[in-house]
Amino acid sequence: MAGLTERASARLAARLARVEPLVRGARERSEDPVKSARTAVVVGRLLAAAFLVCFATGLYSHVLQNPLPWLPLPTRPAELYRYTQGTHVVTGIASVPLLLAKLWTVYPRLFRWPPVRSPAQLLERISIAVLVGVSLVEVTIGLLNIVQWYPFPFSFRSTHFALAWVAIGSLAIHLGVKLPVIARVWRRPAGDEPDATGRFISRRAFLGGVGVATVSAAALTAGQSVEVLGPLNLLAPRRMGVGPQGLPVNRTAAQAGVADDDVADGWSLRLITPTGVRAFTLDELRRMPQSDAVLPIACVEGWSQSASWRGVRLVDLLAEVDAAPTTPLVISSLQRRGAFSRTEMPPEYAADPLTLVALELNGGVLHLDHGYPARIIAPGRPGVMQTKWLSSIEVRS
Ligand SMILES: Nc1nc2c(c(=O)[nH]1)N[C@H]1C(S)=C(S)[C@@H](COP(=O)(O)O)O[C@H]1N2
Ligand SMILES: [Mo]
């Protein structure tokens, strides 16, 4: 019996001896200045800034898509959403290298022994685990969305929205807990430390590398909405100026299940009001006064491009059926299935004279993939709400 325990403990000791160098190595690396509190704070500031901007622009995109009845939405500047959503995607992408760098600077602390010293520290470690886990999932599903790959079985938008709150909540806890460390680092100037050279590279080289990685990741995707960066666009799937009539297409008519028959000569746009239904044929729409508007398609997935649209002002069309833009409109597409087949339009968009039932794009008849015979184009709205292949517009009482 005694021999058995002895043998077992000898085996355990041999195992531990093998693990020990790893733990010691990790502990030594925590003395590496690249893994110091200062580096963690410097990278952390940039990461927190990216997260906060990403969160704010994400919230804005969310309210545009789920309007609150008491909150008026801005229709001008017409390009506003282009910039907020472009910023959302760029800050989200920039946070990937920052997040990895931040993990690199702090991971030796995972091996600290004992792992938990107090209940407060247990809570802190749980909040960090949640922050790290949720942030990684959040940026990953965001990236998959940008490259138009939807392998997950859950709704992207509601999951992305819910996780954003969890991430920001655990970030607030983390910042609160770390405030003393952050304050200490901020008060002491950077040069005030004995050795700024790490085991492998200096802190300056590390931060420089993180900076280059972050700026490159952002620059390599921003080209999907910023013209001068267009040639650098390697990561994002849509190319500026590439597509029918010089504009990218998010979902083609074939993908949306809109057939040629649906848009043949018999097509008409039905205006449904509490007092009746009036159908406008394409010829009738073309005979009405036409207006021009230069407005962007600004996709929630980050790509955007301005284009020249021509068609009937929505306010003029509503006036034809004696309706005023005072209540939300329900806009339906010929597309039968899917979340995009029907959208609601708050009155502020319907009232804006730039909002068109567009019949033409960049000087030609609307291409089928851009929504022929007619589509909605409104200022300041997410692309997903710019309904293509119109079938009816309903005015609710
Ligand atoms: N009916 C319908 N309208 C739609 C869509 C759709 O799938 N179905 N996609 C939307 C999305 S996500 C965007 S970004 C714009 C893209 O417009 P475009 O293809 O003309 O560039 O159309 C919007 N309108
Ligand atoms: Mo979109």
TrEMBL record:
Domain (Oxidoreductase molybdopterin-binding): residue spans on this chain: 264-396
Organism whose genome encodes this protein: Agromyces lapidis
Top-level taxon of the source organism: Bacteria
Pfam families assigned: Oxidored_molyb
Transmembrane residue ranges: 42-63, 83-105, 126-150, 162-183, 204-223
InterPro entries, sorted: Mopterin_OxRdtase_euk, OxRdtase_Mopterin-bd_dom, OxRdtase_Mopterin-bd_sf, TAT_signal_bac_arc
PANTHER family documented for this protein: BLL0505 PROTEIN (PTHR43032:SF2), PROTEIN-METHIONINE-SULFOXIDE REDUCTASE (PTHR43032)
Protein name: Molybdopterin-dependent oxidoreductase
Gene3D superfamilies: Oxidoreductase, molybdopterin-binding domain
Keywords associated with the record: Membrane, Transmembrane, Transmembrane helix
